[in-house]
Specification:
This protein has helices at residues 11-22, 34-42, 51-57, 68-76, 81-84, 99-109, 141-151, 166-194, 199-207, 215-225, 237-253, 259-273, 284-293, 304-307, 329-340; strands at residues 4-7, 27-30, 46-47, 60-63, 90-93, 115-118, 121-123, 134-138, 157-162, 324-326. By secondary structure, it is of the alpha/beta class. It has two domains: 4-169 and 323-340, Rossmann fold (3-Layer(aba) Sandwich); 209-310, N-(1-d-carboxylethyl)-l-norvaline Dehydrogenase, domain 2. The strands form two sheets. A six-stranded parallel sheet has the order 3-2-1-4-5-6, with helices on both faces. A four-stranded mixed sheet has the order 7-8-9-10, sandwiched between helices. Helix 11 runs antiparallel to helix 12 (259-273).
């Protein structure tokens, strides 16, 4: 069985390391905070005196660090992981960071015959409420296969995203979209209250509509955007532009700032000026963004009807892409012990 090292036993790191230790992997740990390592030592882990020391003793090395500065220092600095890692060793950084940084780190590990993976957690704090804890993994496929049993100790859903850097790109995009959606929800709920509607009523009407079912993500993207088919439009841009204009007018009437809505309104106005009033209203922002970014978001082979069925409360009941692997916790741990023992 591989010996697993863990550097950085803070809020996230301690949870992840706890799952790995519970799966019976021998562990070597390091943290600047002496109190953080104590619970792991009491359960049989070995204490290292530096990240390099961890790397020298272990086959798979994890780190969970606050930000890019700390990641670079631990990976590449004096007495860092690079200094101690053995040929064939796998270094896995689970914090969200700059894709360019993890690519730089991987390039410096390669001459030593060592591997680097990035594995940011996409959803769910390991060790908290039951559910699917998704982990994105980028890097060499060989290293991913090698590390799977350890990753499965804390990740119910492992999503292999491709080359090094791709996992952090996906994580940052997830956070970007989530932040924009959160701002829109905040603007809408606050406007509803100022306009005299009970906030629970506003909330229920939104979440029970097609927005609450994430129509744009689960249906519009595979059915329209991926296929480049924006017509015929069930709800054309002319009507969406009218509705959003009335909403921002309501905001001005009640003195409610709507920065995100106002920005999107300008996007829709630009779409109208291009003569796209008859196209699908909710799809026009995709067309505008494609034009601005110089890309076309097309993808073959995705069944829109299947895509609309996806719910992560029980994803094992739906068809999934080949790059996603699901694990049921106790079974995954037994398999990990058998495959590495």
């Amino acid at each position: 069985m591989d010996t697993v090292g863990f550097i950085g036993l803070g809020n996230m790191g301690a949870r992840v390391a706890g799952h790995i230790q519970d799966a019976d992997f021998p562990m070597v740990v390091y943290d600047l905070n002496e109190a953080a390592v104590r619970p792991f030592l009491e359960k049989g882990a070995t204490l290292a005196n530096s990240p390099a020391d961890v790397a020298q003793r272990c086959d798979v090395i994890f780190s969970a660090l606050p930000g890019p500065k700390e990641i670079e220092q631990v990976a590449l600095g004096k007495e860092g992981v690079l200094e101690g890692i053995r040929r064939g060793g796998v270094y896995i950084e689970i914090s969200t960071s700059r894709p360019a940084l993890i690519q730089e780190i991987e390039a410096k590990f390669r001459p030593k015959g060592a591997f680097v993976l990035e594995a940011p957690v996409l959803s769910g704090q390991p060790g908290t409420a039951p559910g699917i804890h998704s982990v994105l993994v980028g890097g060499e496929p060989e290293a991913f296969e090698r590390a799977k049993p350890v990753l499965a100790a804390f990740g119910d859903q492992l999503m292999y995203t491709g080359a090094i850097g791709s996992a952090n790109v996906c994580k940052l995009i997830h956070q970007l979209i989530g932040s924009v959606v959160s701002q829109g929800v905040a603007e809408g709920l606050s406007l509803g209250m100022k306009a005299g509607v009970d906030v629970e009523v506003v909330w229920e009407t939104v979440r029970r509509g097609f927005l609450g079912r994430m129509y744009m993500l689960h249906d519009l993207v595979p059915r329209s955007v991926f296929k480049g088919d924006f017509e015929p439009a069930l709800f054309p841009l002319t009507l969406l532009r009218k509705d959003l204009g009335l909403a921002t007018e309501l905001g001005r009437e009640h003195n409610v700032p709507l920065p995100a809505a106002s920005l999107v309104e300008q996007v829709l106005v630009s779409g109208m000026s291009k003569g796209w009033g008859g196209k699908s209203g909710y799809a026009v922002p995709f067309l505008m963004q494609e034009e601005a970014a110089g890309v076309e978001m097309r993808k073959d082979g995705i069944d829109p009807n299947e895509a609309t069925r996806y719910v992560d409360t029980d994803p094992t009941t739906t068809t999934k892409p080949d790059f996603i692997t699901y694990y049921e916790k106790p079974k995954a741990r037994r398999q990990a012990r058998r495959s590495l023992g």
